[in-house]
Amino acid sequence: MKSVAVLGVSALIVAGILLIGCDEWTTDTDDWNESQISVTYFSGRYAHATGQVLVQNSTTNVTVSNVESDRIATGDGVRYQFVAQLSHRPIVIGSLTITDGTVNWFENGNGTLAATIANAAGTIDYSSGEVTLDYALPGNAPAAGAQLIASYKYRTQRGSSDGPIYSFVVSQDGNHLTFTDDHGNHYVGAIGHLEVIDSPAVVGPWSAIASFSVEGTYNGQQIQIVGTLEGEVDDDADPAVLYRYLYGTWIESGGETGTIRAQAEPITYYENN
Predict the structure, then answer these.
(1) Distances from the Cα of 159 to the Cαs of 53, 63, 126, in angstroms?
(2) pLDDT digits 0-9 by tens, 184-227
(3) Are 186 and 51 in a shared domain?
(4) What backbone phi and psi angles, to 5 degrees, belong to 262?
(5) Do 33 and 67 share a domain, yes or no?
(6) N or C end of the chain: smaller count of CB under 10 Å?
(7) Helix (H, G, I), strand (E, B), or coil: what is residue 265?
(8) Residues 46 and 180 in one domain
């Protein structure tokens, strides 16, 4: 049995609000040029904005462990920008602190780090454990021999052939879709219906909402994911930046269901001519 993290308003409610008073556009073909929607409009990696689990095995034993002293880098008195890897992952959100003995770094709970010196900035990828630190100025560089020590909490899962899912890579080719989770499982299906809210030919914000269904196997169970892929374009921006969201329902052959909410990185959007 699995459980899915409920990460927001249900897909049906969100889609229903957005579609009120909008014209419909549908097709049974693979060529979407008529709608001026790119055939790869929704392709990309979808994950929770702060790295939270999207799908979790409920029968898996999840243990939270503490790490008090993880040495991630050593100062040389010159280097003031670092990319480092924590020894364990996934990281519990809000648990990470780093110190070099002089400067302290604190996690803000949203994937960013702040320090006790001005203008310093950092990031943490909760799923991969990668940390970036920018001390802002060469004069702020950790002293030669100074150890950068991280303290944090991380989760471990046992008792399952597949661990929790943190992301889906969506590959779109026309109305054909393939979802690939971060364990390499594939879920194949199609977009069955597309709504364009406003027209891409009209300057200003407009949206596209595609209903989809994909099927595959996860941890020995047949899975169906249904929902909407949604994108927003602002033609007033230069370049027009596309924001893309995935609102889905995870349906297991055993009857368990749950809601998935994820988003993809913005991309530059070019209209089809």
Answers:
(1) 17, 12, 22
(2) 999 999 998 888 776 555 545 778 889 999 999 887 788 999 99
(3) yes
(4) -150, 165
(5) no
(6) C
(7) strand
(8) yes
Could you read off the pLDDT of 1-13 as tens digits, one per residue? Answer: 344 443 332 333 2
Q: Write down the pLDDT at residue 201.
A: 53
Verdict on whether the full-model pTM lies above 0.70: no
What's the CA gap between 155 and 212, in Å, rounded? Answer: 32
Within 10 angstroms of residue 68's Cβ, the number of other Cβ atoms is 8
- The DSSP secondary-structure symbol of 11 reads H
Q: Tell me how far apart the alpha carbons of residues 261 and 5 are, in angstroms, rounded to a whole number.
A: 9
Any idea which of 15-24, 101-110, 219-228, 245-254 has the lowest mean pLDDT?
15-24
Q: How many residues does the chain have?
A: 273
Number of neighbours of residue 31 by Cβ within 10 angstroms:
11
3-state secondary structure of 16: helix
Q: What does the alpha-carbon distance between residue 113 and residue 122 come to, in Å, rounded to a whole number? A: 4
Nearest 5 degrees, angle CA 223-CA 224-CA 230?
135
